[in-house]
Design a protein that fits this description.
By secondary structure, the chain is of the alpha+beta class. It has a domain of 72 residues. 21% of the residues lie in helices and 18% in strands. It is built from 3 helices and 2 strands; from the N terminus they run αββαα. Strands 1-2 form a two-stranded antiparallel ribbon. Strand 1 and strand 2 form a beta hairpin. The termini are far apart. This is THAP-type domain-containing protein. It comes from Rhipicephalus sanguineus.
Length: 115
């Protein structure tokens, strides 16, 4: 939460107090933890928290009334489905090239012999 403390600093505010409250309106919904998820005997169990808490990397980003250039937007992550497929290595049709430890040299020598 250090990054969030730095982003929300104003004056001499101290975030180490037990009485400090943060307005949920300033955070994105995925940054607020409202339930605890457990795995008990292979079953997934979710219990609602009495008090919501923030994720460790939560940063206040939503401030109404401020110009858009003063608000920090969450960086976008590109989905893996948007990436082009990986290139496949070329397959040589010549069996000699696969069997030879140095295919480039063998190819050069056979080309010179034919000339």
């Amino acid at each position: 939460m250090e990054v969030g403390h730095t982003a929300a600093k104003s004056g001499d505010s101290n975030f180490e107090s037990n009485y400090t409250h943060v307005c949920a309106n300033h955070f994105d919904a995925p940054d607020i933890v409202t339930a605890c998820d457990f795995n008990i005997n292979g079953d997934s169990v979710s219990l609602k928290r009495d008090k919501p808490t923030l994720k460790a990397d939560a940063i206040p980003r939503n401030f109404e009334g401020l110009p858009s250039y003063l608000t920090k937007r969450k960086p976008r992550f590109h989905s893996s489905t948007m990436q082009p497929p990986c290139k496949q290595p070329r397959q040589s049709s010549c069996e000699e090239l696969r069997a030879s430890p140095t295919p480039c040299l063998d190819r050069t020598l056979t080309a010179r012999k034919g000339v």
